[in-house]
Design goal:
Elements: H1 2-21, E1 31-38, E2 41-48, E3 72-80, E4 84-86, E5 89-91, E6 94-102, E7 106-112, E8 128-135, E9 137-154, E10 157-174, H2 177-190, H3 198-211, H4 215-228, H5 233-245, H6 249-265, H7 273-287
Antiparallel strand pairs: 1-2, 2-3, 3-6, 4-5, 4-10, 6-7, 7-8, 9-10
Helix pairs in contact: 3-4, 4-5, 5-6, 5-7, 6-7
Protein name: Tetratricopeptide repeat-containing protein
Keywords: Signal, TPR repeat
InterPro entries: DUF2911 (IPR021314), TPR-like_helical_dom_sf (IPR011990), TPR_rpt (IPR019734)
Length: about 290
């Protein structure tokens, strides 16, 4: 019995010493989780974010021509909820491990069907979904902290950026949003059987305007939106922009002036439209000369 008690006490002492010996401290490469809508696709990026800390990164800490986890700690993950393309390569909805092979001129980008590795350990080319090359772009400013993010947004996508030190790569991401949006406009306006709201008319008109599609129809929808909600000075602003694009400076000036006056009277907020309408009026004046 004494032997058993001694053994139990010894185990408890070891456990106690082990637990008290562990130090709670922040990671030097904290885990980043960001969610981003790109077109009509929803992305989640998960990666460890290291810092430069005076080290030479590419060609040094990260050797050229060798597989890199493209971040720190666990493998970097990209999740998307609908089919998209990366640099022209189809990528179905799902979660993928992001790997790369950097060189001084270009990077090989790899999306792997296996997103559960720790770093690049056990990487297998047979699990690749896509593999392609993109140019390496030199930066004048030094980025201390590694980052992955999206920029250069449009209705059909944007660019996925990987950047650190004095280097970045840009991966064009395409989402076929236009087809879905045009179909929705067709259903909610052209083939509508019930009441159409001011917001619906405005959203459809703004999309047609941004796409340069059937601008006469966009004019009609803007006018209907303004008729239904005359106090929405932001509707008026875009009607002025469209008139200017159609070289109708008289109409553009009238709507821009109305927007400015109504924005100044707003008891809530002008939402930045005082400045926007002022700048638009300057553009209109310049176009009329």
């Amino acid at each position: 019995m004494n032997t058993i008690k001694t053994l139990v006490c010894s185990i408890l002492c070891v456990v106690s010493m082990t637990s008290t010996a562990q130090i709670t401290k922040p990671s030097l490469s904290p885990k980043i989780v960001t969610k981003q809508q790109v077109g009509l696709a929803n992305f989640t990026l998960e990666y460890g974010q290291p810092n430069k800390q005076g080290r030479t990164i590419f060609g040094g800490l990260i050797p050229y021509n060798k597989l890199w986890r493209t971040g720190a700690n666990a493998s970097t993950k990209i999740t998307v909820d609908t089919g998209v393309t990366f640099a022209g390569h189809p990528v179905p909805a799902g979660t993928y491990g992001l790997y790369s092979v950097p060189t001084d001129k270009e990077w090989t980008i790899i999306l792997s069907n296996n997103s559960k590795r720790w770093g690049a350990g056990g990487y297998d080319t047979s699990e690749d979904l896509v593999r392609f090359k993109v140019p390496s772009i030199s930066l004048e400013d030094t980025l201390e902290t590694f980052t992955i993010h999206f920029e250069n947004f449009n209705t059909n996508g944007g660019d996925l950026i990987i950047a650190w030190e004095n280097t970045k790569v840009k991966i064009p991401v395409y989402v076929d949003s236009d087809k879905a949006i045009f179909s929705e406009i067709e259903a909610k306006i052209t083939n509508a059987t019930g009441e159409i709201t001011a917001a619906t008319y405005f959203d459809a008109a703004q999309f047609y305007y941004l796409k340069g599609k059937d601008l006469d129809k966009a004019v009609t929808w803007f006018d209907k939106a303004i008729e239904l909600r005359p106090g929405a000075f932001w509707y008026v602003y875009y009607r002025a922009e469209l008139a200017l694009q159609l070289n109708d400076t008289k109409t553009a000036k009238a709507y821009a002036t109305r927007c400015l006056e109504d924005a100044k009277k707003s008891t809530a907020s002008d939402f930045g439209y005082i400045a926007k309408a002022t700048l638009l009026l300057e553009r209109i004046e310049g176009a009329g000369k």
